[in-house]
Design brief:
Two copies of one chain form a homodimer. The first copy, chain A, has 143 residues and is mainly α. Chain A has six helices and two strands. Chain A has a domain of 65 residues: Arc Repressor Mutant, subunit A (Orthogonal Bundle), CATH 1.10.10.
Chain lengths: 143, 143
DNA sequence: TTTTATTCTATTAGATAAATAGATTTAATC
DNA sequence: GATTAAATCTATTTATCTAATAGAATAAAA
C-alpha cells in the first residue's frame, strides 16, 4: 500500500503540473491543501521533502508558493514514490537505492523469494519509472 | 517491502514444501525455526495464521508438527503474501479482498493515481498469483 | 503418566505514520 | 519602514503497527 504521504504527494504534484500550464505563477500550500483535501501542515512537510530533492521549487514570501522543479516530462512517478515511501523493492537485497543483504539469507543466487520478488520489482519499476508526470497530466495512461 | 512476517512465512512454507517430498511426516516448529533462523515464538503465530486459512495443516502432540494443507501446486505465492501482509494493491480502491473508496477521491474513473497503480497491481497479481509453491520448490522461477 | 508438541492469552518495546502547534524567516507591497 | 503573505523550522503528540517474548493450557503419543 502507498502511504498517505505518498498519495498526498502525488495528488499535489499532479495538481501543480496541471496548473503550471496556465502560467499563473507559484501555487500556495493553502490552495493545494484545500483543493486536494489534504491536511495543510502535513502537506507542508511533504512538499518540503520534494523540494529538497529538487523535484519541486519554492518561492518565499508574498506571491510565493510551489512550482515544479523541472519539466513534467523529466519527473517520473517512480522518483516520487521512492522519495516519499522508500524503495520499491519487496526485499532489501533487490533495492538499488538501499541495497542490504537479508539477515537470514544463505545464498542470494538460489533464494526463491528473491527470484519471485525480482520479477515483481522489475515490472513495478518498469511501469513507475516509465511513466512521467507529463503522461499523467495528459491522461496518457490507459488501462 | 515485505514484512518480516511474510518473509518468514514464505521461508517456512517453502521449507515445508521441500521436506514434504521426503515423506518424513510433519515438521516441528522448533526445526523450522532453527533451520530458517526465525524466532520460534514469532513463527508460531505465523504458522497458526496460515493453518487457520487452510494453507497449512497441523498435528498436535508427540510426533506432531506442520505440513502443507493442500498440494503445493494449489498454493500460490499471492495467497500467502495477501494472508500475511494484506492486500497487494497500492490503493484500497484497487483491492479485491479489501475494497474501500479513497477518502479524498472525487472520481475513480479519472483518477490518474489509480490508473497508474492499477497497472502495477495487475502485473504484481499476475506474477504472484501465477506462481505456485510447487514452482518455487522446483526452481521453475527464472530471471 | 510422562513427554512432546501445538495452541491460547497476554504483554511489551520500539518504530513508524499521520498529524498538529507555534515560532521564525523571507520577500513583496503599501 | 511597517504590514502582510508566504514558506520554513522545531517540537510534540497520538495512535497504530511490527516484531518479539512469556507462560499456561490443551492434545496426543509412547
Amino acid at each position: 500500500m502507498l502511504s498517505k504521504k505518498a498519495k498526498y504527494g502525488l495528488q499535489a504534484i499532479i495538481y501543480l503540473a496541471k496548473e503550471e500550464k496556465k502560467n499563473k505563477g507559484p501555487i500556495q500550500i493553502a490552495e493545494l491543501a484545500k483543493h486536494e483535501k489534504i491536511p495543510k501542515k502535513f502537506l507542508e512537510i511533504i512538499l518540503l521533502e520534494m523540494r529538497k530533492q529538487g523535484i519541486l521549487h519554492s518561492k518565499l514570501g508574498a506571491g510565493g508558493g510551489y512550482s515544479l522543479g523541472k519539466p513534467a516530462d523529466k519527473i517520473t512517478i517512480g522518483q516520487i514514490v521512492r522519495l516519499l515511501d522508500g524503495p520499491l523493492a519487496q526485499v532489501s537485497c533487490l533495492s538499488k537505492i538501499a541495497y542490504h543483504k537479508c539477515d537470514e539469507c544463505k545464498d542470494e543466487k538460489t533464494c526463491e523469494i528473491r527470484k519471485i520478488m525480482k520479477k515483481v520489482h522489475d515490472s513495478t519499476a518498469r511501469i513507475l519509472d516509465g511513466t512521467t508526470l507529463s503522461d499523467a497530466v495528459k491522461g496518457k495512461i490507459n488501462f
